[in-house]
UniProtKB/TrEMBL annotation, chain A:
Protein name: VWA domain-containing protein
SUPFAM superfamilies in the record: vWA-like
Pfam families: VWA_CoxE
Region (Disordered): 75-100
Species per Swiss-Prot/TrEMBL record: Parahaliea aestuarii
Top-level taxon of the source organism: Bacteria
InterPro entries: UCP010256, Uncharacterised_CoxE, vWFA_dom_sf
Biased composition (Low complexity): 77-91
Automatic annotation (TrEMBL), chain B:
Domain of life of the source: Bacteria
Species per Swiss-Prot/TrEMBL record: Parahaliea aestuarii
One Pfam family from the record: AAA_5
Segments forming domain AAA+ ATPase: 40-218
GO terms of molecular function: ATP binding; ATP hydrolysis activity
Gene3D superfamilies: P-loop containing nucleotide triphosphate hydrolases
InterPro entries noted in UniProt: AAA+_ATPase (IPR003593), ATPase_dyneun-rel_AAA (IPR011704), CbbQ/NirQ/NorQ/GpvN (IPR050764), P-loop_NTPase (IPR027417)
Protein name as catalogued: MoxR family ATPase
Lineage: Bacteria, Pseudomonadati, Pseudomonadota, Gammaproteobacteria, Cellvibrionales
């Protein structure tokens, strides 16, 4: 039963529950404390020890039903039934079939051979327990647990059948077919029943193992695809992915703003200082607690040239503002405006649409920077990080580099994320190389993975 | 060593019965959590909406085992000086004064600096010792001889730094004091942490705990709770009011009424000598259940239907 538990944990992992080895041990301790007899109780216990949030608990409970539903059906009664070798002909309803086949065995040596095999015996006796046990063994022998793609289903079904020793059955069917025996239909029925069983087993196994992996696989691909090439129908997945990323980053980095506080009395220092006053502790010294107040100002280009990216960047900003305090968002193309309130008041799609509508148009970086200086330059301080998301294509207008430099001098960090590849920077009307001189850090950013890494780095440097 | 062997915690059924006798009606899952926490010596992180009895669980446990309940209320800015221990600075300062006066006697007849220093070393150093240690809740829980229930309330309100501080205590039931060494609990306390999910608790902390999520109770369970807490209330009214609260929870409310609100409402209705729910009565007492003006308005607009639903459910 312990292997069943590790199998279950494997399954949880493939469904994105992080289960550490220590937790596996915990789960085993839980299981041995509660016992396996009471399913409900075991279910509760495992949920208590392995799930770390209500969401994870729901996943776990579903997996539990899926997994142990199958596991127990396969294992529970196995101890009670006699071994397969004592294959006495079954007495009840199927005995009639068995007798007919036995009669035919004299005529067909293949059929006699098939009747010798435990497989057909199990089928004839309708011994589900033995059969599912054999299925389990065959699954272990063929490595069915490794199934990942639905295209592998046929292949694994074949292998399972071979491992079960279906070959003798197959031969017997062929022999009967050639002789056009009346027993053919009977035997075929049993063979089809077996195939059905195996197919269902493989299907279940596929659902158990592949689902989780497929999602991970999908997520990986989505992360690496260039943002402007993502198809509309994946938007939901991407949105979920972005939200997850933002949550993860925020959980790692968010700190609530704090004023400087008086900490504990520093006894050692107080005493040492006291020596100068003949041992009288004249001054007390306190360990200070310093806290950072990271602030992020994000400027996002929403003009036509970067429209496909802007959607994701805005989405990311939205999520980030949701989870991090002190994030202010601005959108610009021909002019610039603050969209923090927009983000706060509206759901994500609506907010992005509104931002695009209000501030979309031909790009004018100079004008937008002027707007920004007017709106928020006073708030840029040594604890501020300014992020600019845009392609720096200014349609040949005045880039107003001096404003950018002003921001650069005041801010703690200025970061420019450009969806264009580095080679294209500075070509044509791109002002990227000039703006870059007024950035602490400029990077190419056109897929979610890059975005995540950069933001992670940025937040780490922030305090 | 374990928190002393308590026959009250021997099996899940006994826990359920024990809790029930104390007026805390709980689901099997909660009892399982307490059982496992006891058997495996693991802290329990209790999550759930406010008012479903998270804190009450710890209190009832303490009552059941008749051990002291030590409670640490978390808030932003809580630090080790308030949670773990602090030095008694005043006494420490006095001690140095005393020491100074004794210095003459101590060093009397010592020749040269080397000998003086040596004598000084021989002199017991109690400046940093348990005598000057002021235990705060966490350390206090470690020091209880019969074991204790330690309730770390609303751990999500504390800072991340504080969480790391808890890790050592929760996994090994010990506290490291740099100046003294490690203080290990002679009898490890049973620990409950509660969280309202105002922020995500770190994985490191979650990993060390059993995770118990208490949702709003089922109708049947809630009726049992009302029965045990407000036994005088009429059975029909009880059915009605629980069904009504349940239908309120299905509405999109800022703050759905929890068990504590149901109980408050039941008590209010009892005081008003109500025999069954009617529109006027509900309207006038709705503020017991709902704490936001918006919520009250949206409930009032659908009141007639809600009541009809509650009637038919009862």
């Amino acid at each position: 039963m312990q292997s069943a538990l590790t199998g279950f944990i494997q399954l949880l992992r493939s469904h994105e529950l992080r289960v550490s080895p220590a937790e596996t041990l915990d789960a085993m301790a839980v299981a041995s404390t509660l016992g396996y007899a009471d399913r409900e109780r075991l279910r509760d216990g495992l949920a208590l020890s392995l799930a770390k949030s209500a969401r994870e608990e729901a996943i776990l409970l579903r997996c539990f039903d899926q997994y142990f539903g199958r596991e127990l059906a396969g294992e529970k009664p196995s101890a009670a039934t006699p071994a397969a070798s004592e294959a006495a002909p079954a007495p009840d309803q199927d005995s009639e079939d068995a007798r007919q086949l036995q009669d035919g065995a004299a005529e067909f040596p293949e059929l006699a051979e098939a009747l010798q095999s435990p497989l057909l015996q199990q089928l004839l006796e309708d011994n589900r327990t033995e059969l599912s046990l054999s299925l389990g063994q065959a699954a272990a022998a063929t490595g069915l647990g490794n199934i990942r793609m639905f295209t592998q289903k046929g292949q694994y079904t074949r292998r399972m059948l071979d491992a079960l020793g279906e070959e003798t059955l197959r031969r017997a069917v062929v022999a009967l077919e050639q002789a056009d025996s009346p027993l053919l239909e009977l035997l075929k029925g049993y063979r089809d029943h077996l195939r059905q069983q195996v197919r269902e087993y493989v299907e279940r196994e596929y659902l158990l193992n592949a689902q989780g992996h497929n999602r991970q696989f999908m997520d990986d691909i989505l992360r690496r695809t260039r943002l402007n090439q993502l198809e509309q129908r994946y938007m939901d997945e991407v949105r979920e992915l972005v939200r997850k990323m933002a949550r993860k980053l925020a959980a790692r980095h968010s700190r609530k703003p704090k004023v400087q506080k008086r900490g504990q009395l520093d006894m050692g220092r107080t005493l040492r200082r006291g020596i100068a006053h003949d041992g009288i502790m004249f001054h007390t010294y306190w360990r200070k607690v310093r806290r950072d107040k990271p602030q992020i100002l994000a400027l996002c280009d929403v003009s036509g040239s970067v429209a496909a990216y802007a959607k994701f960047l805005l989405l990311f900003l939205y999520s980030l503002q949701d989870v991090l305090p002190r994030v202010r968002s601005f959108a610009f193309s021909s002019h610039l405006g603050e969209i923090s309130d927009l983000f706060r008041e509206h759901p994500v799609e609506k907010a992005i649409e509104l931002a695009n509508w209000r501030y979309g148009g031909a790009t004018d970086y100079g004008r937008s920077l002027e707007d920004f200086a007017e709106l928020a330059l006073a708030d840029v301080s040594s604890s501020t990080t300014v992020i600019v998301l845009g392609d720096a294509r200014n349609n040949g207008g005045d880039p107003k580099l001096e404003i950018m430099q002003g921001i650069y001098q005041r801010a703690r960090r200025v970061i420019w994320l450009n969806p264009e590849s580095r080679r294209a920077w500075g070509s044509g009307d791109s002002e990227m190389l000039r703006y870059q001189s007024a950035c602490h850090f400029a990077a190419e950013c056109n897929n979610l993975q890059q975005l995540e890494r950069i933001i992670d780095q940025l937040l780490r440097l922030n305090h | 060593m374990h928190i002393q062997d308590f026959p009250q915690l021997e099996s899940i059924e006994r826990i359920e019965q024990g809790f029930e006798a104390l007026g805390y009606i709980c689901s099997t899952k909660i009892a399982t959590a307490v059982f496992l926490a006891f058997q495996l010596r693991k802290p329990v992180l209790v999550e759930g909406p406010p008012g479903v009895g998270k804190t009450e669980l710890a209190k009832t446990c303490a009552e059941l085992l008749s051990v002291p309940l030590i409670r640490l209320q978390c808030y932003e800015g809580l630090d080790e000086a308030k949670a773990l221990y602090e030095w008694k600075y005043g006494k420490q300062l006095l001690y140095t004064q005393v020491l100074k006066e004794k210095l003459g006697d101590l060093l009397h007849g010592a020749k040269g600096l080397a000998e003086s220093v040596e004598r000084l070393h021989q002199f017991g150093d109690i400046f940093y010792s348990e005598d000057f240690l002021e235990p705060r809740p966490l350390l206090k829980a470690m020091q209880q001889e019969r074991g204790a229930i330690l309730l770390i309330d609303e751990v999500d309100k504390s800072d991340y730094e504080f969480e790391s501080l808890l890790l050592e205590i929760l996994s090994d039931y010990q506290v490291s004091i740099p100046e003294i060494g490690t203080v290990k609990a002679s009898v490890s306390p049973m620990v409950f942490l509660t969280s309202n999910n105002s922020r995500d608790i770190s994985d490191a902390l979650k990993r060390r705990c059993l995770h118990l999520y208490i949702p709003f109770p089922s109708v049947e369970l809630e009726e049992r709770i009302v029965l045990s807490r407000v036994p005088d209330i009429d059975a029909t009214l009880r059915h009605q009011l629980v069904a009504f609260v349940h239908s309120l929870r299905d509405l999109d409310l800022k703050k759905a009424p929890a068990i504590s609100e149901t109980l408050d409402w039941a008590r209010s209705l009892l005081l008003l000598h109500a025999e069954q729910l009617d529109e006027a009565l509900v309207r006038s007492t709705l503020n017991v259940l709902l704490k936001f003006e918006d919520d009250i308005n949206s409930a009032e607009s659908g009141l007639v239907e809600l009541l009809r639903g509650a009637d038919s459910a009862a």
